[in-house]
């Protein structure tokens, strides 16, 4: 029985993040901290719609992992279950329609979060916190 329990615990430990809840920043800017409290240092600030996976919770705090594997803590009041994506490539084209044949509206770099509005095949219709909208190929996002 101990071997089975050890196996289960080991398996759970190695699959952390698989099927984890995904949340996003719901305010204009949220501080990501080294620990669960305002007395901990700020690691970075994340803008609205920044998505992440929940690793654990501690009271009103959420430990998160972002698209680059970085981890930190954020207060629960600053996040929500908002469908969102973040760009993972150095140059990402945002287009007027769901395909490369549509005009280019603008380009963004790595780490730009967007709220997901709808999907069409491999294309995502997204909105940035500043209100700009367009289509991006899902392969450019996390």
Characterize the structure shown:
- There is one protein chain.
- The protein contains one helix and 13 strands, in the order αβββββββββββββ.
- By secondary structure, the chain is mainly beta.
- It has a five-stranded antiparallel beta sheet, with no helix packed on it. A four-stranded antiparallel beta sheet has the order 8-11-12-13, with no helix packed on it. The protein has a two-stranded antiparallel ribbon with strand order 2-3.
- A hairpin with a 5-residue loop joins strand 5 and strand 6.
- The longest helix is centred in the N-terminal third of the chain and has 13 residues, at 2-14.
- Residues 1-17 have low confidence and may be disordered.
Task: Summarize, please.
Helices cover 9% and strands 46% of the residues. The chain is mainly β and 142 residues long.
Strand runs, count: 13
Number of helices: 1
Q: Specify the overall morphology.
A: elongated
Number of domains: 2
Main sheet attributes: strand count, strand direction, barrel closure: 5 strands, antiparallel
State mean pLDDT (0 to 100 scale).
Answer: 90
Structural class by SSE content: mainly beta
CATH homology superfamily name of the largest domain:
SH3 Domains
The CATH architecture of the largest domain can be given as Roll
| Unreliable runs | 1-17
Oligomer: single chain
Strand order of the largest sheet: 6-5-4-1-7
Order of H and E elements: HEEEEEEEEEEEEE
CATH topological fold name of the largest domain: SH3 type barrels
The end-to-end distance, rounded to whole angstroms, is: 40 Å
Radius of gyration: 17 Å
| Helix percentage | under 10%
């Amino acid at each position: 029985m101990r071997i089975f329990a050890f196996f289960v615990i080991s398996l759970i430990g190695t699959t952390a993040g698989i099927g984890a809840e995904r949340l996003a920043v719901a305010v204009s800017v949220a501080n990501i901290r080294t620990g669960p409290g305002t007395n901990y240092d700020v690691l970075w600030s994340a803008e609205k719609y920044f998505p992440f996976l929940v690793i654990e919770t501690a009271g009103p705090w959420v430990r998160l992992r972002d698209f680059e594997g970085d981890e930190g803590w954020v207060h629960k009041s600053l996040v929500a279950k908002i469908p969102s994506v973040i760009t993972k490539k150095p140059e990402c084209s945002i287009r007027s329609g769901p395909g490369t044949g549509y005009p280019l509206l603008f380009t963004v770099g790595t780490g730009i979060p967007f709220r997901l509005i709808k999907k069409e095949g491999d294309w995502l219709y997204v909105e940035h916190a500043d209100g700009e909208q367009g289509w991006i190929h899902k392969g450019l996002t996390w």
